[in-house]
Amino acid sequence: MQSKQLASLPMAFTWADLVDALAEERGSLAELARSLTEVAPASAGLSLDPLTVERGLRRLRKRGNAEGDKYGRLLLRLFGVPGALETWARWMGQYHSRLSDLPTAMRRDQLRLWDRPPISESTVSIWVHIGLAGLANREREVEALERRLALARLLAKRAPSAARLELALFEAALAVDAGEREAAAGLLEAAAGLLDDAALDGDERACYFARIQDQRAYRVARGWREERWRLGEALELYAAIPEAGPAFVRFRRAHGVAWCRWRMGEVEAARAAVERAVAAAGDGGLRRPRCMALTLRGLISGEPGDLERALRIAEEVGDERLVERVRRYSSG
């Protein structure tokens, strides 16, 4: 379903698009003007004449991606953005979305087109900031990463639970990479609490649960060479992810199980699991997960062909961190 909906993703969004979408929800521009007149607080100084308000909305339509006037600010404050637009924005910021697999340059261009009014003046922009922070992390642009994270944190106070959940998982991953295990643990527990509260459908909830379990396992498994018990605990976390469900969830479970079994010396079990990971990533058309699955299969089997294929995918996606990882494994 997501693939069909992504096909209608607009390249950019203007004030005219916002006004037209809100007017369509209410039946006409005149009805939108009347609704705005009825709900606007007296402090807004809005005219009580719907025709005057309608003329103001027509002027707003011509502002393109310029900063919004008082009508634009009121529309966003009182009516927000259309539901479909919020869904598209969420997909643009989610790690497990199909949009995350776009080549880095293409994804950056798409996000920047949305990093303008009216989107940038709404709470929906938190997803754009998270998406751009993820790209900055892939490309090791520390200053851009910190700037986008700061903007996302400011918006998180008014953002829905799903956005705060995405932000918590991203920051937890950064904390683990930085060796800040206690901070990562706190962020992951916060993410688990947000998952309980977030209004998500079954597939979305399953994807977030799989990501929380993966990050918990990744945190636990650090230092497994010195403390072998960590592998067993990580395996239990991966095994708790459902075997059925969206392709991303099936990949996440199988890949984690394969890695743990391989490190535990259970090569045949690892091979069976990694084949499931490769298949799940292929079923979902997930390029970055498929790259990771092929890399692990190459390490387990010792076949250089898988690592070569993984490197091509990483280079095509333009993920510098992923390219570096595959090259490191390829060189032994």
What's the oligomerization state?
single chain
Quick one: overall form?
elongated
| Percent in strands | under 5%
Radius of gyration, taken over Cα atoms and rounded to an integer in Å: 23 Å
The CATH class designation of the domain at 229-332 is: Mainly Alpha
Distance between the termini: 41 Å
Structure at a glance:
The protein has 332 residues and is an all-alpha fold. It is built from 18 helices and no strands.
Report on this model:
- With 332 residues, the chain is mostly helical.
- Among the domains are: 2-79, no CATH class; 229-332, Tetratricopeptide repeat domain (Serine Threonine Protein Phosphatase 5, Tetratricopeptide repeat, Alpha Horseshoe), CATH 1.25.40.10.
- Helix content is 72%, strand content 0%.
- It is built from 18 helices and no strands.
- The longest helix is centred in the middle third of the chain and has 20 residues, at 202-221.
Based on the model shown, name its key terms:
mainly alpha, Serine Threonine Protein Phosphatase 5, Tetratricopeptide repeat, single chain, disordered N terminus, 332 residues, elongated
